[in-house]
Amino acid sequence: MILYYTGTGNSxxxxxxxxxxxxxxxxxxAELIREGRTGDFRSxxxxxxxxxxxxxxxxxxxxxxxxxASFTGSREAWFVMDCGSEIGNAAQGIRSLCDEKGxxxxxxxxxxxxxxxxAMFSAPSPETAEKLIRIGGRQAERAAALxxxxxxxxxxxxxxxxxxxxxxxxxxxxKFCIGDKKFYATDRCISCGKCAESCLLHNISLEQGRPVWHxxxxxxxxxxxxxxxxxxxxxxxxxxxxxxxxK
Length: 247
Ligand SMILES: Cc1cc2nc3c(=O)[nH]c(=O)nc-3n(C[C@H](O)[C@H](O)[C@H](O)COP(=O)(O)O)c2cc1C
Ligand code: SF4
Ligand code: SF4
Prior knowledge:
Distance between the termini: 21 Å
Bound molecules: flavin mononucleotide, iron/sulfur cluster
CATH superfamily of the largest domain: Flavodoxin domain
Number of helices: 8
Low-confidence stretches: none
CATH architecture of the largest domain: 3-Layer(aba) Sandwich
Structural class: alpha/beta
């Protein structure tokens, strides 16, 4: 089973390729989270987990979802993490998670995809995004071939800096950077409600036709990137930046 989590579509894109190549079922963790459901999964085929990188780790929301879910059948697990630049030492946390769940961990493959984190960085030009998506797709095909052959993903070298990023910096990042206080909507808002619909945590409601954020945000960047009129901003940082979402 290919179980994926996505905010802005990159991970879904790679997960679809993996599902097609492996002729396996595709399941969206974000949809289950949106419906308030815990996973109760059964498969004799390998488990393939696909997600973005949040602060050099798998997103805590996805980690917690996997933690709470039950997995019956196969004990073989591969992870694919897409990122804007790098996943650091994410493998260490994933290995512990696999130990917890009784999975045999076959490695994590890093796939560079277009950056979506416009609260802190910026999204690439459409040309660069297209190139990254094309190359990323080929890497996903390679990942599928390794999984089909039952082979481990190659283990990349881990630097001291990677340990720092995925360890204390990740903890700092979640404590101090992830939050919705800086989101606001400008006069460009047309009250379409797409931002509220897009939030897997039901964290946005429309009040007098304008979105209001309610304090429970995992920084998936769906709302700000999906708004059809680019009415949502995150502090000053996002102003004038290109939006990014892969359907
Ligand atoms: C909250 C947040 C944190 C991120 N942290 C990292 C990171 O540590 N390293 C990195 O290379 N990319 C990081 N990114 C970029 C995303 O991992 C990347 O764009 C990913 O492909 C988005 O996947 P999605 O479209 O499936 O949500 C971050 C993005 C977000 C929203
Ligand atoms: S998606 Fe954009 S235009 Fe639509 S309600 Fe939200 S902020 Fe307004
Ligand atoms: S408020 Fe926006 S960024 Fe936060 S979880 Fe919801 S959709 Fe994602």
